[in-house]
Structures are given as structure tokens and as C-alpha cells.
Design goal:
3 helices, elongated, alpha+beta, 158 residues, homotrimer, 22% helix, five-stranded antiparallel sheet
């Protein structure tokens, strides 16, 4: 069994951004010795998310609008809005923690014959929710170098 | 290590539907040679989700109502509402992409002694958010044929 | 390959609570023979969640407020509000099922050199949404005892 953890840096361009990383993930799997197994994409932060959606700019913009609707940037009810001694700064990002909880921190996809198995419209996104910042996410590849996968094909159901 | 990717077709009955697939997943694991490992259930689409909940029709209906409340089907602010050259059709499904982001595309459960480890009320759902369509989800089984699992039992905490 | 499933009991203190379990997960991985692989943290219930966020009490309180805003505890439109023969009780917890769907039932993190790979602010939470109750979550550790991980280091991107 091989288990590789790659740390990928990304400089995010703005406070909120859907950054497509599908090609980076595909390429990492192609360059890995793993032929059969799984790849996880996982953020290392609590005000970012990893999500999957269709790679269209207007879908991305509507997802960002949804996150703002879900958790407004400012709300007088937020408690996480105070001087934070550990940061030496005001905490003003409660909304971004809530948006991160909605999106979740990771996704996983199978590796078959050395390639990621993705649906034809599935794109992987690093979602910046509290940028711009230098961020890091993990590409974790686990499996075997020799092909062990058995594609059992499509079977009708329901 | 064994890694098997099954592609399961499902014909969804309506525009939005919670389709329980627990038995399909359990059966696939039973028929697999893997005795100890993990199973992922992953959609291949961007307007569907995979989620876990209790198998009660009124819970399912309330979850669908929640998704409609979360992302209304129509909203004049949606940008993904235009002629889409790549599809040769109008894009009118921004809400379904947002609902898919909320539910997420997958879940994973352990395999122990050849069976999926699920809580007594945990049912796995394929959530159709933009049907009716023929859809495909993956059952990805990874592990060993011989039992390697060590059930360390329940330990009190907190 | 080693695959271990630990069942961890937790007595939750109130109807809704963010219970940090990071140290329990870290310790389980340290005590496991797995040096290289993955750890999943998965709930066995449908009215709880597993989520990742920053370990600050005001962030936790704002997340709970977000869940209440997302799915109000009572709503006359909820259908899951009736006598439930299988439970011998009234079903009055539709909101908690919806909140569980938002948070999701699990997270996974890499294991490298015998330790969990977590971002510096990432804390793992068991989210009680319908307590107080005795609950169980799984710590599932899968991998190899010998170090197989290759840390390929940080590479700039974007």
C-alpha cells in the first residue's frame, strides 16, 4: 500500500472565490505511482471549503451568492466578533466559519487505471471564504501501484 | 489490497426525490471479496447528492422542503439562467447546484467482517435534485479479503 | 493493511452541543499500529453530525445559532411531527434531521508518521443536535504499520 500526502499552496485572489483545482488533482494522481485506490482533497483551514460542482462561471457566482445568503457577512447576533488575543486582531469572520461548515472540508474520488474517476461535469473547487490569503490543501493518494481494481460495470437498479 | 468501483444506474422518478439505496450498498459489499476496509458511495453528477438520514417518508419530505427553502427554485438574482451553448438549452437549474453543494457528493462507511458498519437508523440516500433522469453513482469498495479488522470495542469518553 | 473500527461513546450534555473530540481522535491514532494511512470519524446517528471548525467557544455558539436559523426547531410545515409507532413517541425532531444533513456524518484525515495530519486551527467536533443522549461515533483507522508515506512537500500553484 502506498499513501502519499501532497501539500499544495494556493494564493487566493479575493475574500470569497471558487478556485477550480480539478486539473491539479488529476495531474497529481497521474504522477503518483498509485494505479488503483482513492484520492482525497482536503483543506487545512477552517474558513475555506472543498466542494464539487459544474465548472461554469455563473454557477460559481450563484454558489458564492448562496453562501452570503446562508450566512450574512455581518449580523449583530454573531458572538465571534471581538478582540481575539491569540490572533492579536478583531475576530470578524463568523460568517466564513459557518459557510465552511456548509461546504465541508473535503471530497474523495476513486482511482482506477491510474486516473481519477470523476463524472463528466464534476469539477473540484477550493472555496476561499475569508481571503485573500496563502492557503494550503492536501492531495492524499492511497492505493496500490499494480492495478487491483475490478470494474464491475454498470448494472440497472430501481 | 482490493479496490473495486461499481457503477450503479438509477432512473429517478421526479425533479426532486430522496431515493434510498442502503440495501444496494449493503448487497454490493456482501458480494465483494472485501472483508475489512471501507465503502464509499459517490454521485457522478453536480445536481444530485448523497446523504444519510432516517428512512421515514415524512423525514424525506421535510428534507426536500428544507432544500427548497434553502435554495428557491427560481430567483431573479440567479446568474445561471441563460442560454447554455454547451447544452443547447436554457440553464434553469441554479437552485439544484446549490442544493447539491449543501448535501455533498458522497459518504463512506467501514466494512467489518464483510458487512457495512451503519448505525441502526442510518439509511443512505441518492438525492435527485434535477430529475427525472437516468443517473449513475459509484460504490467504491477498498480493503482486504482476509479479516484484518480489530474491533477495539466501546470505550467511555467525556 | 490494517483496518480498525473503534466505537466511542459520548454522553452529550444538552439538546444541541458542539463537542470537541480532536484529542480523542489524535490519541486513537497514536495508539494504533497504523503509521501511514487514513482516519475517518463517523457518527452512527441521524440527528448528529461530524464537522471541523476552529476551537473557539464563540465560533461554536455561532455555529449552533446558524443551525437554528437554517432549520427552525418548530415549523407548522414539518410533516415529521406525528405519533411514531416504531418509537412509541411523538416525532418532534424534523429540524435536527435537517441540521444533520447540513453538517454531514463524517470527516477523514491522512495519517503520516503515526499522527493525524490536521491544519493548525482544525478541530474535530461531534455535533449533538437532538440530545442529551448517550451517542456513539466511529474512529476508523486504515493503513500500514510501516511508513509508506512519501511527503512530496509543498509546491506552489495558481
Amino acid at each position: 500500500m502506498i499513501s502519499q500526502v501532497l501539500r499544495i499552496a494556493v494564493d487566493t485572489p479575493s475574500d470569497t472565490a471558487m478556485i477550480e483545482i480539478t486539473e491539479t488533482v488529476k495531474q497529481a494522481v497521474l504522477e503518483s505511482p498509485v494505479a488503483s485506490g482513492v484520492v482525497w482533497v482536503t483543506t487545512t483551514h477552517t474558513t475555506t471549503g472543498i466542494t464539487v460542482n459544474e465548472g461554469l462561471p455563473d454557477v460559481e457566482a450563484d454558489l458564492i451568492a448562496m453562501l452570503r445568503r446562508f450566512a450574512p457577512t455581518e449580523d449583530p447576533a454573531y458572538l465571534h466578533a471581538r478582540w481575539l488575543p491569540s490572533d492579536g486582531a478583531m475576530a470578524i469572520n463568523s460568517a466564513t466559519h459557518q459557510r465552511a461548515a456548509l461546504l465541508g472540508p473535503q471530497v474523495a474520488f476513486p482511482i482506477e487505471n491510474g486516473s481519477v474517476v470523476l463524472g463528466s461535469r464534476q469539477c473540484i473547487y477550493f472555496a476561499e471564504l475569508d481571503g485573500p490569503l496563502r492557503r494550503t490543501y492536501l492531495i492524499h493518494i492511497l492505493g496500490e501501484a499494480s492495478p487491483t481494481s475490478t470494474d464491475l460495470g454498470e448494472s440497472a437498479q430501481h
